[in-house]
Design goal:
By secondary structure, this protein is α+β, with helices and mostly antiparallel strands. It contains four helices and seven strands. Helices cover about 30% and strands about 40% of the residues. The structure holds coenzyme A. The site of coenzyme A has 20 residues, from strand 4, helix 3, strand 5 and helix 4.
């Protein structure tokens, strides 16, 4: 399977939005993705047959980096695509001498929490009842890793 990774471009948005809408809760709109591109965030896409199948977006600041979004097309999950995207992000931020990566994740998002655990992220904070869900409220976990 030939999967390539490169910077996101406008024509990726159609498939990126499809991936975003496969989540239980799609948070990002087209405008949000466009703003990340305009802001020159770290925004990488993996493509299979020229179609986006996975993406990662991170805000790289002077001393730290925040992962803003990460998604893998449902039929392509559990094939280590997210691991590869994360691995490459870590290499990139290390090369910029950045010392910490952090992110926010729903407490019930076991797949994502396990993924970050594998990359040695720890829970560094919690925002109780941060998310409004269909069934009530849910905590946001803040996870971080020192590089
Ligand atoms: C979370 C997500 C990005 C993982 O992508 P992926 O490419 O399937 O992940 P990988 O194949 O690289 O998996 C790496 C590790 O993550 C964990 N993991 C991934 N999917 C999992 C699942 N469904 N259940 C439990 N753990 C899971 C496992 O520890 C896995 O390692 P293993 O395969 O050795 O068990 C993907 O499920 C997704 O797009 N989810 C919806 C969007 C989302 O939640 N984004 C994160 C927002 S913070």
């Amino acid at each position: 399977m030939q999967i390539t990774e490169s910077d996101a471009i406008e024509s990726d948005f159609k498939h990126i939005l499809l991936i975003e809408h496969q989540n239980e809760v799609a948070l990002w709109s087209l405008k949000n993705f466009q703003e990340s591109l305009t802001a020159k965030d770290y925004f990488k896409v993996m493509r299979f047959n020229d179609e986006a199948v996975a993406f990662i977006i991170a805000k790289v600041m002077n001393y730290e980096c925040e992962i803003l979004n990460l998604g893998v097309e449902i039929s392509m999950r559990k094939k280590k695509l997210a691991s590869k995207l994360l691995h490459n992000l870590i290499d990139y931020v290390k090369s910029r001498n950045i010392k910490q990566i952090f992110l926010e994740v729903r407490a019930s998002n076991i797949a994502a929490v396990n993924l970050y655990d594998k990359f040695k992220f720890n829970e560094i904070g919690c925002r109780p009842n941060y998310y409004i869900t269909e069934n009530g409220k849910e905590d946001a976990l803040i996870m971080g890793v020192d590089l």
